[in-house]
Design goal:
CBS-domain; 46% helix; two-stranded antiparallel ribbon; alpha+beta; 20% strand
Length: 142
Amino acid sequence: MLVSQILRTKGDTVFTVAPTETIAAVAALLHSRRVGALVVFEAERVVGIVSERDVVRAMAEGGAAALGEAVSGVMTRDVLFAQPGETVDSLLARMSDRRIRHLPVCQKDRLVGIVSIGDLVKSKISEVEAEADGLKAYIAAS
């Protein structure tokens, strides 16, 4: 299965935030949007990604005062991207190796979606279930 197929099912909505936004605002957005990460966007380009882990790390290091700091101080700047034509297997391997849970999807330098490790696992399970059903039907027909 390809990333583009997941985005067709899941949708292409990506929640973004400016690098000047506070960590408190990011935490509120993560909660209200029910997502684990936000893409940090500035001047029509991706400049980072911020996740729940980043918020927790900031709180652990800076206490309540961290909530007033800009997200630019805690976001991941070296963002890995997925392409719509990549396979689920290749992304699962990359995400496992790098221990990340979210990948923005870009096509020709344009943000077109985001996938999570949960999206990929769900897709993989569906694929395996379909294959098992096909084998069961084949065996039953024999």
